[in-house]
Design a protein that fits this description.
The complex is a heterodimer of chains A (186) and B (237). Chain A has 186 residues and is mostly helical. Chain A is built from 7 helices and no strands. Chain B has a 5-stranded parallel β-sheet with strand order 4-3-2-1-5, sandwiched between helices. About 23% of the residues of chain B have low confidence. In chain B, β2, α8 and β3 form a beta-alpha-beta unit. The chains are: A mainly alpha (186), B alpha/beta (237). The interface between A and B is large, with 50 and 42 residues.
Chain lengths: 186, 237
């Protein structure tokens, strides 16, 4: 009996570590998908509370990260269904309502890229950000989004093509290349 | 005709994302050596990947309500009294520590041993997210049952945290369970109303009135994680 309780406590601790270690990563992904800090925070809360209440479903902690991102993707799908919202980003306003004149070049670059990402179709946006931000393998992304690997590759291709056209092809090289001033490297 | 026409965009992506086998990687390198155009395509694709990473390196954090700002005066007073009692209790505990035998705790466990203390404590946090009155009733019944089923000599603590539609449980103008909540609070069940849910409702113009026993200020997730860190059992209703 005591062994069983200790096992439960050990599992709980492992799960708490999992939550603590992934909360910021989930938030960053949710923000990349929605472009809205409040909505992203809501989705992460839903994700982690769902994960907590369904933790018995998680048999293999090695697969836990993918499992959490899958719950996040499902939470976003539920949200979009409920709101009939497609998060296309067509009407996206810049997150920081600072006038362009006051932007530092660095911030301008960040905002431009985020806007371009927000303009992608949500399906493409999810794949691009899961691969580029979290460096998930194509197989993991396929599991998270419950789609075939071939679909991951084609969505990634279309998403990156759209980003490239918007960020690299249609603009001058200088606009997207801030002055190089390397302070330190990893 | 492009020299690199036989390298598809998918292959280029797979190369950059580390999805190719070593033989295929060598093949892409060889072709890039021979084709300036392919080399340029690779550079641009790499640049794009780095741009996306860079754009989300630091993301804006959501605005969160401060627990102090949302705490009603009555609760602030209660929390001050509780703080004083806590200090007195801690002082008494330190005083008594010298007189207490380790075996006087159930199971012979020391409170300093987190693992074993968690077994002794058997505290519970119940989470209500549903607006279904039956689920709310179930949560309250479970809180009562947990209190009454505690082993003799074990001070069991029970908290109820409500969010999303479940917040209705703690809204004085819509809850059907104000008497039950009042009774359970008198038995030391603590009720938390999720600050995020309150914030969302207020943004929609809803005036959120909570029962006096409900404490706002934490998000449901923060409260649950905090209590799980204390070794409490989490139960989703």
């Amino acid at each position: 009996m005591a062994y069983k309780k200790l096992l439960i406590i050990s599992q709980r601790r492992a799960f708490r570590r999992l939550v603590a270690n992934n909360r910021d990563r989930l938030y960053r992904m949710a923000f990349a998908w929605t472009g809205d800090p409040q909505l992203a925070d809501d989705l992460v809360q839903q994700t982690l509370l769902k994960a907590l209440s369904n933790q018995k479903q998680l048999r293999d902690f090695a697969a836990a990260e993918g499992w959490l991102f899958r719950i996040l993707a499902n939470c976003l799908t539920d949200y979009r269904r409920a709101k009939r919202e497609f998060l296309s980003g067509d009407n996206l306003e810049l997150v920081d309502k600072v006038t362009p004149e006051k932007w530092l070049k660095e911030e301008e670059l960040v905002q431009k890229v985020r806007q371009a990402v927000q303009r992608l179709a949500i399906n493409h946006r999810q794949v691009v950000t899961l691969v580029d931000l979290e460096e998930f393998s194509y197989a993991s992304v396929a599991q998270i989004l419950d789609i075939p690997v071939g679909t991951v590759m084609s969505r990634l291709c279309r998403g990156r093509r759209a980003l490239r056209e918007e960020l690299l092809d249609n603009r001058s090289h200088e606009t997207l290349t801030p002055a190089i001033n390397i302070k330190r490297i990893k | 005709m492009n020299k690199d026409e036989n390298i598809s965009e998918e292959q280029l992506n797979a190369f950059l994302d580390g999805e190719l086998e070593s033989e295929e990687i060598s093949c892409v390198f060889d072709k890039a050596e021979q084709s300036a155009e392919l080399d340029q395509r690779l550079c641009r694709q790499r640049k794009l990947k780095e741009l996306v990473k860079h754009a989300y390196r630091d993301v804006p954090q959501p605005k969160r309500l401060s627990p102090v700002r949302r705490m009603p005066n009555s609760l602030l007073g209660m929390s001050l009294v509780a703080s004083v009692l806590l200090v007195l209790g801690a002082a008494a505990g330190l005083f008594m520590h010298g007189f207490m035998d380790r075996d006087s705790l159930p199971g012979g466990f020391s409170a300093a041993d987190n693992t074993q203390a968690a077994i002794v404590a058997e505290n519970y946090i119940l989470h209500v997210a549903s607006g279904d009155p039956q689920q709310m009733k179930r949560a309250l019944q479970m809180a009562k049952a947990l209190l009454s089923s505690a082993k003799p000599g074990v001070a069991r603590q029970v908290e109820v945290v409500a969010n999303e539609q479940g917040l209705d449980l703690l809204r004085s103008d819509v809850s059907n369970f104000t008497n039950e909540i009042s009774y359970l609070a008198s038995e030391n069940v603590v009720f938390y109303a999720c600050s995020k849910t309150i914030q969302r409702l207020e943004e929609k113009g809803v005036v959120v009135k909570l029962v006096p026993e409900a404490i706002p200020g934490y998000t449901a997730l923060d409260r649950v994680v905090l209590r799980m860190n204390d070794g409490w059992e989490y139960i989703k209703i």
